[in-house]
Every structure is written in structure tokens, then in C-alpha cells.
Design goal:
The protein has 312 residues and is α/β, with parallel strands linked by helices. It contains nine helices and eight strands.
């Protein structure tokens, strides 16, 4: 089961998380932003830099993180934040990205991709791929190594990271050393066993997830190729970069990540799957949570190992 600290966080999330499914996109953004906690690890990195990079729908804001005392060239990690495709931004995941940069001694590029419902699928996935391409082209100027390029994301961001890797494979580049998918949202049907068993009572809900997908998908649901919103619909996953997949047993999305990890392995892709039976959606970015700290320690280990290998 789970300890009292985890149980208390779940109770707090379940009682206090805004009922986004009753809101508009802008209302949900404001409600989530109002809950944001101050960042406490500002000195974890040597510096940050906000930039705007070219994107398919105009310039994409990004935030760059540079670690202390690291020998160049460094690994480069493109990070796509979660938030149901609707909310969150580089500020919401600032503390997580600082620790990611510091603990993996990498340049981190946090992507402020276009949000739904104003920008329907696959706009966010195209922004993620544009950021991945920009990172590869500019890695050396940032003190990074283009042969040690990774992409990561949590929840909706995990979807974007997986989709960007499929786009990179089918476009012939850039080469990616690893895809890091943290409790990714991959199945818009929201009808797996984990949704049925954990759809209420654990913070993130089936109702909220269904609302996120309604905001992100076009009215007719049509996106071609479909894998740009639903990676499991790709004809094959062969040729994708090695994957690190994190799932949580109390998460409605648990089966999304588990199914993708299994499908990658079936198609010959190397997979490291870290499953946490007693934890919930979002636990890794709750920075004070003890269980989250220990899981991040293992994640940073996995990322360092993947970055050392480089792109296949």
C-alpha cells in the first residue's frame, strides 16, 4: 500500500484539485496557476536563459537550463511539460527542470508549446518536434553534444515526446538517444482497466482526462497521421530510440504507459520500465514528496546511463 505522506497528498489532490471538466481552457489555466508553489531550488543550475525558437505556428518560447561545473559537451534534454495539453508551462515545471539539469549534468530545453483548445492537435506535437530539431541543430552552440540528445515529458508531455520520436524516425532525424515518458497520456478512449479502477479517488480523474482529450482533439477527432496524437496506432515502433517509461499504479493512465512499454519491447526497442504500484499521477513533480525524491534519483540514474550511450 502507500505511506501516510502519500495518502495525505492523494486526499489533498482529490479534495482540492480544480474540477477542470467544468471549466473553459482559460479558466482551468488560471485555476491551476493559482495553485503554483514557489520554486525552492533556484541555485541548482548555473543559469537559465529564456529564448524564442522557430516553430511551425510561429516562435516557440523555451527556457534553457545550464548545470554547474560540468564538462562540455553535455547531453541535451528537450522537456515537454504536462498539463492535459491545456495548462502548465515552463514556470510550472521550473523546479523539476532545474533538478533534471543539475542531476544529469545536461542542458535542458523546456518547451512552451502551443496549448489547447486554442491550438488543436497535432499543434503541440509539431512544436515538440520543432524543438527537438532545433536542439539538434544548435546543441554545439549551447555546449551540448548532438549525439546525446534526449526528449522527455510527463503526462501530456509524455505523449508529445513519444510523438516527436515517431516524427523524427519517419523524417530521418534528428537522432535521439532516449525517449523518457513519465506516466504518458496515450489513449484518448480513456477506457482501460486502470481508468475503470482508478478513475476517481486518486487525484487525476477519468472525467478530467476525457475533458483534456476533448480540448486537444479536433471536433471530428481526425488527425493524420494518427500516431501524432496516439502513438500506439503507429504501424510499427521499430527504429524508435530506447525508452524509459515511468508508470504509477494509482494512476488512471497506468495502462497507457504499460501498453506502450510492452509494444516498444515487442517491436525490438530497448525499454526500461519503472512502475510504482503505490503512487499516483504527478508524483514525480511534487518536489517535497519523499517517494517522489527517491523515484527521481532512479530516473536521473537512468537518464545519465542513456545519455552516456548516445543515439543508436
Amino acid at each position: 500500500m502507500f505511506d501516510e505522506e502519500v495518502a495525505a497528498v492523494i486526499r489533498s489532490l482529490d479534495a482540492g484539485f480544480p474540477r477542470v471538466e467544468e471549466m473553459t481552457g482559460p479558466e482551468a489555466r488560471a485555476a491551476i496557476a493559482a495553485r503554483r508553489q514557489p520554486v525552492t531550488d533556484l541555485d541548482a543550475v548555473a543559469k537559465t536563459e529564456d529564448r524564442r525558437i522557430p516553430g511551425p505556428g510561429g516562435e516557440i518560447p523555451v527556457r534553457l537550463y545550464f548545470p554547474h561545473h560540468a564538462d562540455e559537451p553535455l547531453p541535451v534534454v528537450v522537456f515537454c511539460h504536462g498539463g492535459g495539453f491545456v495548462f502548465c508551462d515552463v514556470e510550472s515545471h521550473d523546479g523539476f527542470c532545474r533538478e533534471l539539469s543539475a542531476r544529469t549534468e545536461s542542458v535542458v530545453i523546456s518547451v512552451d508549446y502551443r496549448l489547447a483548445p486554442e491550438h488543436k492537435a497535432p499543434a503541440a506535437a509539431h512544436d515538440a518536434y520543432a524543438a527537438l530539431t532545433w536542439a539538434a541543430e544548435n546543441a554545439r552552440d549551447l555546449g551540448g553534444d548532438p549525439d546525446r540528445l534526449l526528449i522527455a515529458g510527463d503526462s501530456a508531455g509524455g505523449n508529445l515526446a513519444a510523438s516527436a520520436c515517431l516524427m523524427a524516425r519517419d523524417a530521418g532525424g534528428p537522432g535521439v538517444a532516449a525517449q523518457v515518458l513519465i506516466y504518458p497520456a496515450l489513449d484518448p478512449s480513456c477506457d482501460t482497466e486502470s481508468y475503470r479502477e482508478r478513475g476517481t479517488g486518486y487525484g487525476n480523474t477519468k472525467a478530467a482526462m476525457e475533458w483534456y482529450w476533448r480540448q486537444y482533439l479536433p471536433a471530428d477527432g481526425a488527425v493524420e497521421p494518427r500516431y501524432q496524437v496516439e502513438p500506439l496506432t503507429a504501424d510499427t515502433l521499430r527504429g524508435l530510440p530506447p525508452a524509459i517509461v515511468v508508470t504509477a499504479g494509482l494512476d488512471p493512465l497506468s495502462d497507457d504507459g504499460r501498453a506502450y512499454a510492452a509494444a516498444l519491447a515487442r517491436d525490438g526497442v530497448a525499454v526500461t520500465h519503472r512502475h510504482y504500484p503505490g503512487l499516483f499521477h504527478g508524483f514525480l513533480t511534487i518536489m517535497p514528496l519523499r517517494a517522489g525524491r527517491s523515484a527521481r534519483d532512479l530516473l536521473w540514474h537512468d537518464l545519465r546511463k542513456a545519455a552516456k550511450r548516445g543515439a543508436p
